[in-house]
Write a structure and sequence with these properties.
The complex is a heterodimer of chains A (274) and B (302).
Chain A lengths: L1 E10 L2 E11 L4 E5 L6 H8 L7 E6 L2 E2 L4 H7 E4 L11 H11 L4 H14 L15 H13 L5 E5 L7 H15 L3 E5 L3 H7 L2 E6 L2 E6 L1 H6 L9 H9 L2 H10 L11 H12 L1
Parallel strand pairs in A: 3-8, 3-9, 6-7, 7-8
Antiparallel strand pairs in A: 1-2, 1-4, 4-5, 9-10
Helix pairs in contact in A: 5-6
Chain B lengths: L2 H17 L2 H18 L5 H4 L5 H19 L1 H9 L1 H6 L5 H22 L2 H9 L4 H28 L3 H17 L21 H23 L4 H24 L1 H7 L1 H9 L5 H23 L5
Helix pairs in contact in B: 1-7, 2-4, 4-9, 4-10, 4-14, 5-9, 7-9, 7-15, 9-10, 9-14, 9-15, 11-15, 12-13
The chains are: A alpha/beta (274), B mainly alpha (302).
């Protein structure tokens, strides 16, 4: 359980997040959404102990980030933005290093290594240097790293960034699989996937929470909930006024966001049924 | 502090050295350079004609100014430029454990270098009558001096955006610490710390820490400057600081003699191990490792 309360962060005099509050409940997959620059990464960096907020708190299982950063880090598996990894290390050495830093005892580490190697499908490339891997494979190593200590909570910052559609499918399937047993907070721009797999979503815009709830709850706020997609809601809440006009123009004067894309949405769904 | 964390970082860093060409290249180049000065030219054993390590120690000391920043440049700066620092500092490991683990790994490389140069005294001992006392003292001195330069280089790496900057900054800082004893000679020669009433170990330590902190904090600010007005302010501060340094060099030359690594190294290279020299080295190492940790932690409040 992550409890974010009144979290505020300034970079110099630039406000990145502005008094945001939300919860990540045990066992759920939370879609953490918002346009680039909305403050998603900043929030995740604060939860994971990379930086401290200007004000506000985060509690993870009643431990707060100011006093119990180390304990919190032990509970969390984190895939940072852009998935930074040691390129010169072979996968297996890298995972062993993470295991050591995480203080996993030797016999248990062997077990966990087998598990993550199997789950993330790393078996064939273990001896290969990380720098020589494809992006999709890299991402799997990043996930393996985050999973190694069997954390209660996973925080994944854009795990699908820069992947091709096939790789996206592999990774999102993997996250879905992992999410069955864990609490997952994932930021991504792949909204159809979020709509299908996330229990709840939090949408940030310009450093503020503009939506927080299950997807059904969010849809109910619109006059025609059945034909609204998460993507429509996202546009409605976060499009800048000038871009909104652009959207209206494209859709022949219909109001942007709500309902505007209902027809295309239906054809998409029809396609999936076949 | 958890030693298992320090050890894990240490092992990873040592592996990085020997899995990449860097360690081999640096070791080979510096063995060639020190080997050259040991064998040929005016400082070579044939021309020098004495079974004595003093000159070669002085040369190795000078080589350290370039050699050690080359070892330390990547320690933090490379992780920063590649983004892996983000991963590392969010693992359950304290910033000081990261600094210490990396520091010890690089120190191991310096020890390896020193061990590889042991053949110089062995050669001298074979063909002449080498006095082992000053030789052992010299090696202890080189180790301590190397440990100080490494702490300085590590600090340079911790405030630099990339390896090249870290290397240049490291060389400048190490050179400055080596050569401060030359500064007072601009005005006058001689002078000792005792003459200005700073004889005891306690005041020595305070002087060293304050001076080191001033110099490094100043460089810290400069390397983080953002706007023109701020930079102008820093230049103004720099002028004042340089002015103060020059004034100090004129009126309190003892301070500069004391701060210079050269000065302390000369004592140890003679085979005299004085607690004041040891305190000097250890306080510099502690000060720079603290500053490196501080600059790594700086991300939290940016």
């Amino acid at each position: 359980m992550i409890r974010v309360r009144e979290l505020t962060k300034y970079y110099g005099d630039k406000l990145a997040i502005d008094h945001i509050s939300f919860d990540v409940r045990n066992g759920e997959i939370l879609g953490f959404l918002g346009p680039n620059g909305a403050g998603k990464t900043t929030t995740m960096k604060i939860i994971t102990g990379y930086m401290l907020p200007t004000s506000g708190t985060v509690e993870v299982d009643d431990l707060n980030i100011y006093e119990h950063s180390m304990e919190i880090r032990k509970k969390i598996g984190y895939l940072p933005e852009n998935n930074p990894l040691y390129d010169e290390m072979p996968i297996i050495d890298f995972l062993k290093f993470i295991g050591e830093i995480r203080g996993i005892p030797k016999p248990r580490l062997k077990e966990r290594l087998e598990y993550v190697i199997q789950t993330c499908g790393l078996g064939d490339e273990l001896g290969k240097e990380i720098g020589a891997l494809s992006r999709g494979y890299r991402q799997r190593v990043g996930l393996a790293q985050a999973l190694l200590h069997d954390p209660e909570i996973l925080i994944l910052d854009e795990p699908t960034l820069g992947l091709d559609p096939n790789q996206v499918m592999e990774i999102t399937e993997l996250i879905k699989e992992i999410g069955r047993q864990k609490t997952v907070m994932v930021s991504t721009h792949i909204l159809p996937w979020v709509e299908e797999n996330c229990d709840r979503v939090v949408i940030l815009h310009r450093g503020r929470v503009v939506a927080d709830g299950t997807i059904d709850e969010l849809k109910k706020q619109y006059p025609n909930p059945d034909s609204v997609s998460l993507e429509d809601i996202f546009h409605d809440l976060t499009l800048e006024p000038e871009d909104r006009e652009l959207l209206e123009h494209i859709h022949g004067g219909e109001p942007a966001g709500v309902g505007a894309e209902s027809s295309s949405e239906q054809t998409q769904k029809g396609g999936e049924e076949q | 502090m958890k030693f298992s964390n320090v050890f894990a970082i240490y092992k990873k860093e040592l592996k990085r050295y020997f899995n990449t060409p860097l360690a081999y290249i640096v070791l080979i180049i510096f063995l060639i350079v020190s080997g050259y000065f040991f064998s040929y030219g005016q400082t070579g054993m044939f021309a020098y004609g004495q079974a004595d390590m003093r000159i070669i120690f002085q040369i190795m000391h000078i080589i350290f100014v370039v050699f050690i920043p080359a070892i330390s440049m990547g320690l933090i700066a490379e992780e920063r430029s590649k983004g892996t620092l983000h991963l590392l500092v969010t693992l359950p490991v304290r910033d000081f454990e990261i600094i210490l683990g990396k520091y010890l790994a690089a120190l191991t490389l310096i020890v390896i270098y020193l061990i590889l140069t042991l053949r110089y005294p062995l050669i001298l001992d074979k063909y002449g009558d080498l006095d082992w006392g000053p030789t052992i003292g010299g090696y202890i001195g080189l180790f301590l001096v190397g440990a100080v330069y490494l702490a300085i280089g590590m600090y340079a790496s911790s405030i630099s955006p990339n390896q090249i900057t870290a290397f240049i900054l490291g060389v400048i800082l190490c050179f400055a610490f080596q050569m401060t004893d030359q500064l007072p000679t601009l005005f006058q020669s001689g002078g000792a710390l005792g003459e200005i009433g700073l004889g005891s170990i306690v005041t020595d330590v305070i002087v060293v820490i304050i001076s080191a902190a001033l110099v490094t904090l100043f460089i810290h600010y400069v390397s983080h400057s953002v706007s023109l007005t701020k930079s102008a302010l820093y230049v103004a501060i720099a002028v004042v600081v340089v002015g103060i340094i020059l004034a100090l060099a004129k009126f309190l030359p003892g301070v500069f003699l004391y701060l210079s690594l050269n000065q302390h190294f000369r004592n140890i290279a003679r085979g005299v191990i004085d607690t004041r020299d040891i305190v000097y080295y250890l306080s510099l190492i502690a000060a720079f490792l603290y500053l490196a940790t501080y600059s790594l932690e700086g991300r939290k409040w940016k």
